Amino acid sequence: MFEAGVSGNPVGRPKGSYGGRIQALAGLDRLLAKKKNQRALINALEADLHKNPVLFFKTVIMPLLPREAKLSVDHAGVIEWRSLIGAGEQEPDDGKRLTDGGGTAGAAGA
Questions:
Q1: Which residues contact 68 (CB under 8 A, 6 or more apart)?
Q2: Alpha-carbon distance 107 to 55, whole Å?
Q3: CB within 8 A of 53, min separation 6: which ones?
Q4: Which residues form the domain of 109?
Q5: Mean pLDDT by 10 residues, the chain (110 residues)
Q6: What's the predicted TM-score (pTM) here?
C-alpha cells in the first residue's frame, strides 16, 4: 500500500529528460523558427482575421490576454481597453481606445 507523505519516485525525473509537453513545445518552436512557416502562419491568421474579425478576436486574441484583462466592445464594434484589474485599484480612464483606423488595432464592425 501507499504511505502518506512518501513519494512514489523519491529520486525524481532523471536530469536532462523532459516530459511530453515540453518535447511537443520544443518541436513547435523548431517548426515556427523557419521563416517560410512564419510567413504561412501569418498569412493564414490574416485570412482568418479578414473572414470573421469578431470570431478571430474571440478565439485567437482573447485567449492570449491575461485573465485580468478587461475589454469592452460598444455597439459600433469599437474595442476599448479598460484596465488590468489590480487588488483594490480603480480603473484608469486614460481615454485609450482601439479602433479600426488611424494606425491602431481593432475590430471592424461587430
A1: 84, 85, 86
A2: 10
A3: 107, 108, 110
A4: 52-110
A5: 74 82 94 96 96 93 77 63 51 47 41
A6: 0.46
